[in-house]
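Why should sequence recovery work at all? Because a backbone constrains its sequence more than one might expect. Tight turns favour small or flexible residues, buried strands favour hydrophobic ones, and helices have their own preferences. The token representation captures these environments compactly. In the example below, the structure is given first.
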């Protein structure tokens, strides 16, 4: 009896779920859990479900749309690269020479 096995050719490829790539899947899961907790907290506080449900659905739709936009715009690592690039200072100012004159070179 012969078996047919499919070859996994996705080695070293980023994971993808319905168009979301890499870390955006985790962002989606975390956002949906946060929306669920927000729904539960507002329901426990006594807000009517007729008010909460449309708000949560609109927030969820906006969040998913934003994630798909970021996933397609930046790709797998682009969002992290953009954040890292923004954290680089544009100018390093040194108003005194004391920084450089206080350096001690060790010569043996």
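From this structural description, the recovered sequence reads:
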């Amino acid at each position: 009896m012969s078996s047919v096995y499919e070859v996994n050719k996705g080695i070293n490829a980023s994971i993808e779920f319905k168009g979301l790539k890499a870390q955006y899947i985790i962002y989606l899961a975390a956002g949906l859990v946060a929306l669920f907790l927000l729904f539960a907290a507002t329901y426990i506080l006594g807000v009517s479900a007729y008010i909460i449900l449309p708000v949560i659905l609109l927030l969820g739709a906006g969040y998913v749309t934003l994630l798909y936009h970021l996933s397609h715009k930046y790709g797998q690592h682009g969002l992290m690269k953009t954040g890292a690039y923004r954290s680089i200072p544009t100018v390093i100012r040194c108003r005194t020479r004391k920084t450089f004159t206080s350096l001690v070179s060790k010569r043996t």
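A few observations help interpret the result. The mean pLDDT is 85.
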